[in-house]
Amino acid sequence: MSAPALQVPVLIPAYEPPPELLKTVGELERLGFARIVVVNDGSGPAARPVFEALEACHPRVRLLQHAVNLGKGAALKTGLNHILARFPDAPGAVTADADGQHLPADILRVAQALCDARGETLILGARRFDRDVPLRSLLGNRISAVVMRALVGEKLSDTQTGLRGIPASLVPHLLRLTPNGYEFELDVLIAAKHRSVPVAEIPIETVYLDENRSSHFNPLWDSMRIYFVFLRFALASLLTALIDNTVFIALHGAWGNIAGPQLAARAAALVFNYIAARRAVFQSRDRHRDTLPRFLLLAAAHISLSYGMITYLHLFTGLKVIAAKLSVEATLFLAYFAIQRDFVFTKKREAS
To answer: Model's pTM, two decimal places?
Structure first.
């Protein structure tokens, strides 16, 4: 392992951490890591001995404090902001969990991979789920893997890993994300997709201490919050379809043709869809002059294709116009979403 890898800051968000945190920090120091940041995310009195021992035995470790528990995402943003300001020369940061699940040797491997990629790739430490895995961890990861395949168009084996090498170029965009809980980690993957930051996985050891009871991840509540990331995609699309079809049905009854109502309905839906897709769905902060022309080009193609398909189904199969429109729009939905994801709201990667 190269010396630069040991200069990569290691960020550990900690809420009610077990004593394993001290062991992890000590082993990282023995490996030679010089920049270790721990964020106490509003832990209670029971965790005070751990943090007191951390300050007493590891004075070089930077301990940041939240007065109250704000969530893992908030702790990660606090640490990333500190690292970006304190270590502007670093290629990024490696995040690791406080419960001892990530071996220091694997943390070093992720740091090395981040350096090898020159801080231009998001590195994920991917666990193997082939043996001795608690059921809640296995199910949670399998479901989120399917969801993320739909959202970002990439097949990732471990979307919930907390061991990540985050490139410095991505950090400013992550600091602007609003989620503060576990869902923040899925939004990191979405942000990487839409900033055209490559994602690479490296295998790591799968360690679960005491059946993963030290984890503060609530399988029901936190999973619902995570999958809200996906639901906002579906909700925006549903509202767009509702506006589109309501206007079309109303105008088709009054005008009696397809072209006029189709154009008017799509214009009304496009105004809503652009605003919703840009801010609430894809969380794009790119300039309108970059995203709007691509959005309008896609919309024009979509209108032309759907008009042709609706007309064909109505004239040559005898399908009623409303039924034909609903069928066509349902058929084109996934393609329209994928093109928005990969063409309209994905920033082209700039050369180094």
So the answer is: 0.70
